[in-house]
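#structure-requests
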Amino acid sequence: MNVSEQKPSLGEAASRFLASLSAGERGLSQQEIYKFVRWFGWERPLTRLTPPEVANYAGRLSLSDTSYLKKFELIRAFLLYATKEGWCRGNLATHLKTKLTKAKLPSSARQASPAATPLTKQGYEALEAELISLKDKRSQAIDEIRRAAADKDFRENAPLEAAREERGQLEGRIRELEAALESAVIMGKKETASRRVSIGDSIILSDEASGEELSYTIVSPREVNPARGRISSVSPIGRAILGKAQGETIEVAAPAGRLSYHIKEVKRE
């Protein structure tokens, strides 16, 4: 086995990892794994991927994204696989940390009124529906904890730990949704005279390198839903496109280099 086979590039490692999965798992993982690889560069040697870079990538993912934890699981599985194969220096998966805890704010900050959260009407209704659903799940999680706690051997009580962890995640998301809805400002119809991209607009981008077309709707961080093409206004693409107009070209900075996109179409609500 030659050196390149022992220490593959990110792209090669991703392909080998995906090939090791079942067809169903591969379908779920491929998009997120390739997004991770594209960010750092397909030809980037895995041995040159550093812990700070992995941690910074984790910071790019939005906590408001409903797929937030699933994305972490997919990328972490890839990094763990690479570690077991001996392709990287150390276990990079340990540096991919979720943002489930928040630092305590000073008392003066806690007493201040929360900043307004701009939401589309559709986004507001979606958060309301999610909150109702999560409160139902919280009741179920409490029941699970009670049943699991009936087993007095807490040392090996995996169901109890799992139920407690699930409830903790539910509580955090419920508090976040309640705060968002409390401070929400519903975005109204935009003036037709405005020609600049703003929150709520749907856009079609053309990748100037590959010609690939990408469709997105720019939303507040609270409304992110990658499966439906709804990306955050504070994401790299969101920041680059806000205020721009149809026909312009934007550039997005990535470790692999600057990615250029042509704004092919802007649709308003």
